[in-house]
Amino acid sequence: MTAVSQTRGAARIHAAFAEAQAQGRAAFIPFMTAGYPSAAEFPAVADALLSRADLLEVGIPYSDPLGDGPTIQRASEKALDGGTSTRRTLQLVADLRVRHDKPIVIMTYVNPIYAVGPREFMRLAQAAGVDGLILPDLPPDQDIEIAALAEEYGLAVTFLIAPTSTPARVRLVAEACTGFLYAVSVTGVTGTREGAALNEVPAMLALARQFAHVPIAVGFGVKDAATASQVAQQADGVVVGSAFINAVRDGQDVGALAAEIAEGCRKL
C-alpha cells in the first residue's frame, strides 16, 4: 500500500473527512460550476454550499465535458458564455478563500490545465488556495507530469473509478490518489437519476477498500437526502452536483437543499 501523501492539500482534505467521521457523518461534498449562473452570482451560491459542506468541489467550465451530463454541460456553456475562464475560476476560488477555510478542490479536464501550462496552472491554483484536483479524464497510467507537479505545489489529486473498473484498474487508480478516491456510482455521465442507480456501489466500494489508502467518496446520481443517506452508510464522502445546478436554475433555495442533503449524510 502506498504511503499517504503529506502535501498541504492532502492533509487538509483528510482532516475534513476525519472530522466528519468523528461526528458520525460521511463528508458532504457539493459541486458547483465556476461562474454559474454568472460570475457575479457564483460567490453567493458557493457561500451557501460552503456553509454546509465539508469540502467544496468547483468545476472549471469546459467546452467538451465528456463525463458530464446535460445539466452540468449547460452550466458550463452558460459560464463560458459569461466569460468564466480557467484563470477566472481560480480567481473566484481565491475570493472564496478569503471568507472560508474549508477545503476546496477543482474538478477539471486535462485540456484546461495544458492550455494554461501545467506548471503555471499549479502555481495559480496554489496561490488561490486550492487544496486538490479531481481529474476525470486523466488515467493515472497516462499521467506524465500532472500528479508530480500537483504534489510539488502542495495539491492533492483524485482520480475516478466506475462499476466497470477491473480489480487491476481499481488498484492502479486507488494507489495514485492522494486526496480521496472518487467512485462513480454508475457507468455513464453525471446527473440525477431515478430508480436503483446506486445498486452497484456496495460491490465497487468493497473492491476499492482493498487498495485505497485515502477516503472514498461516491458521486453521480445523488440528488436528495434519501440518496445521500443511502451512499453515506457505505462511503466516506457523498458528492452532489447536478441537483444544486438544477436548484440554481429553478431559483430554489440552494442553502436549504444543502442543509437537507447534509443531514442525509449522517450515518445511521
TrEMBL record:
CDD domains tied to this protein: Tryptophan_synthase_alpha
GO molecular function: tryptophan synthase activity
Superkingdom: Bacteria
Pathway recorded for this protein: Amino-acid biosynthesis; L-tryptophan biosynthesis; L-tryptophan from chorismate: step 5/5
Record family assignment: Belongs to the TrpA family.
Subunit structure as annotated in this protein's UniProt entry: Tetramer of two alpha and two beta chains.
Listed name of the protein: Tryptophan synthase alpha chain
Gene source species: Deinococcus puniceus
Organism classification: Bacteria, Thermotogati, Deinococcota, Deinococci, Deinococcales
Gene name of this polypeptide: trpA
